[in-house]
Amino acid sequence: MSTISKYICVLLLSSTAIGAKATEVLEADSLRMRESQGIQFADKDKDRLMRLAANRKIPTFAGLSVSADLAGAFLAATRGIGNYEAALRLNLKNTFFPVVELGWGVCDQIGDATQLHYKVHAPYGRVGLDYNVKKDKNSLNRVFVGFRYGYSNFNYDLFSDGLYDAHWKTTVPFHYTDQSGSAHWGEAVFGLQTSLWKFVHLGWSLRYRLRIAEHQTEIGRAWYVPGLGRNIGGSNFAGTFQLVFDLTRFHKHKR
Predict the structure, then answer these.
(1) Which range marks the domain in which residue 137 is found?
(2) Which is nearest to 204 in space by CA: 254, 138, 144?
(3) How many other C-beta atoms are found inside a 10 Å radius of the C-beta of residue 175?
(4) Can you give the pTM of this predicted structure?
């Protein structure tokens, strides 16, 4: 009987200790729950709020950049068809970028099939706007979509050694110089820009160009329009590769 009493006492003491321990655990969990009360943010929400706060600190006029199209200059120098182009772009909140592009179009080509020699050297200009679609406006890297309006007024030459008349078996002179033309066109632009070193950046753009209006001469449509490019089907695709000097007025980071 005394042995049974001992076992009962041990069980009572054990259950009391377990109950006290459970109470301590519940109190600790309750304290942690009270400490975690309030607004809680996930890491991605915190990053988004920090990015928005940093974007608001960017000044309205955040600087400007000047650039040169290396691809067009290379083609003009090596293939006789291209352009020498420079651009000035303003930076508004690192979001909107009004841009002016001025260039000198070059074409000195002989058609393989017709043997007609087409030659033009004339200026052109474009104005437009780029929009930085990247969410982090403090980043050195940018992704652009934009548009351009372009215009060129030019004179060109179209000539050959002569056109052979198979019926009369004679050569007819073909020589037209100082033919006056002009053209208006629009461009849809997608571009990228990345930092190379400090304020030196590199940029790429892909452009869809659509002819809006054109003044033609008595011999027809100009084969090449400075700034627009080959003027055959009314539209074309083109690209640029730019060396950019980016003079911004706020702290940026690579991302």
Answers:
(1) 60-248
(2) 144
(3) 11
(4) 0.77
